[in-house]
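Review form for a predicted model. The reviewer records the input and the model, then writes brief findings.
Reviewer: anonymous (R2)
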Amino acid sequence: MKPGMPFQFKFVPFLLLIFAVNAFAQPPRASTPPPRRETLLNGLRVALWNVPSASKVTLKLRIHAGAAFDLKGREGMTVLLSEVLFPTSESRAYFTEDLGGSFELKSTYDYIEFDFSSDAANYLSMIDSVANAFTSPNFDKEVIETVKARIAATRADLAAQPNFAADSAAAERLFGDFPYGRPILGTAESMAQIDFVDLGREFRRLFSADNASLTLIGNIKSDLALRGIRRYFGAWPKADARAPYTFKQPEAPPTALYRIDSPKTGIAEIRFASRGFARGGDDFIASEILASILEERMKANTPAEHRESVFVRNDAFVLPGAFVYGIRGIENDPNSSENSSPKIEANDIMAKSFADKITNEEFQRAKLTIERKLSRVEIDSRWLDAETYKLASIDSDARALSTVTVADVQKALDKLASQPIVSILVHTPREN
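Model under review:
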């Protein structure tokens, strides 16, 4: 496997604080019962778990359409839609202060998810409040502009981070105009094109009851909770028309080294990326194991001073996503002596990491890592993933892990090695 143009740098050790979103919460108790399932007349799919020992009740509502469905030229549409439903700090504080719970919003290319919680005594009020936002959305012009400004501030904060610049450049280079290459938060230009008419139309198309799934878990009375869900969510209409994935496949990416300026002088980022795997594919678990193995290999092939900055990320989506390889936050000091820090031979690191066959020892270590990762995924999130990615059951990943072989992982490696790879350097030298 040969990445694009070779490059190398001389760097001094550094300390970098990296912000990361933890996608996995604490595992549910082993005694968690199977869910009670129901599909409402409007198509909303529901799963309920009664856990008498739980101190909180958690409601998760997932829309099975994310930023991949943003119209070209109107990137950021789905994020704006989701933010407008709970537009103010007061509307979100209601769940934390009045109901004794929490509020969280997740936006991805594949889905938009709203996570709420409340005290056990308040879960019917929580259901009512959440349902009201979806059955009676308010696309007030002033509110929309306020939310746009908030998203713009978040976008500006991210743009000032070299690691975000590197990831964004890698995605754009790899996918081009394909949805996975477009910014989830949109741009200033794309947001300016979106008005309240657009939001109303896209809400009816994407944020419909039959394109959503809801989970409720905690100390609940299932019959009462289900009556509340039917009553409050029953008025949420179906879509006029479903929105299938009908995207034109991306062209082959350019492989020459792509250089961009770093938003922080003296801080560099290196990225390689190739097209990867689908989340619902038969080879997903093999690809997860492969990511762990390749990260282990890359760290072993990287000078010790920089090993903790090395990562491999398997960004698997509904359609095949990206395998991203990188070195974060490399600090460059031109005043350091020529031999004070070893060079990072990025191409050599990649080539060596792909050179050898997968060994059983590597396979077993990585398999254990993925087993621990899967064990931390909450049962309601597993159910929602099964809905989004059309998995056979909430246990599909665990079953695949129990049957995956070294040969499966080697096949995934061979598949990756045959893909063209993009290379990104984010760097603005610090002046003497």
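Findings: Residues 141-159 form the longest helix (19 residues).
Further findings: Confidence is low (pLDDT under 50) at residues 1-30.
Recommendation: see findings above.
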